[in-house]
Amino acid sequence: MTKKYLILLLAACLAISGQAQEKFTRGFAGKNKIFIPKGSFGGGLSASWRKFSLGDDEGYTVLSKYIGDLKGGYRSIGVAPSFEYFFGTNLSAVARFEYSWLGVDLNKASLHLSEDLGLDIAGQHYKRQSYALAAGVRYYVPFMGSRIFGWFVEGTLNGGYVQSMLYEETDNLKQGTYKDKWKLALRLDPGICFFVHENFDFEVSVGLLDFTWTITKQTENQVKTSSGNSLGTGLNIDILAIRFGAHFYLW
To answer: What is the CATH number of the domain that holds 216?
Structure first.
């Protein structure tokens, strides 16, 4: 009898010890796999804006023995309203309209190639504006099971129109090259997002990979015309092309 009591007492102690000790985990598995539920709607706006000066007085200064007396500026703006529908958990169909504008002005620059060879440039300008429609899918992944922080990857098919001109202005007369370009591209854009409210988040994304087909028509000094097309791909991270966005969701 004493032996049976000892066995029962030992079993009871082991059971109590097992209940008191919790399983150790670092939380990588996570309990929350649903970041945005199926059937949700989302809408938002992404925007980018950049401006800096070229010169010695303010803004960006070029320190080079080849370029001196540089004056000019760089400006760009982009807006992209979007709409999302989640046909699966964390998986959405995306539609977006994109508009961007870019302006570069080189008011003055001196190129010193050697002691006997130099060149002064003034009045050079480049303007570009583009319109595009994009449609594709976006997949969200919660960070360590969080429903506040997450990252996403977006793949889209983009079609658009770009108009640009590179010209020289002297005595109020413009001479240069004007281009019309039609583009069709496959793009891959990763990003991160975080919720500041139950239905509202901020996001940051950057272009990573694109596969583009373009048709270009250009006119030089309103006289000479030419056209061509190209097909190519690019893999690069453009830090200056980071987009900031805000989205509102309806569950």
So the answer is: 2.40.160.20
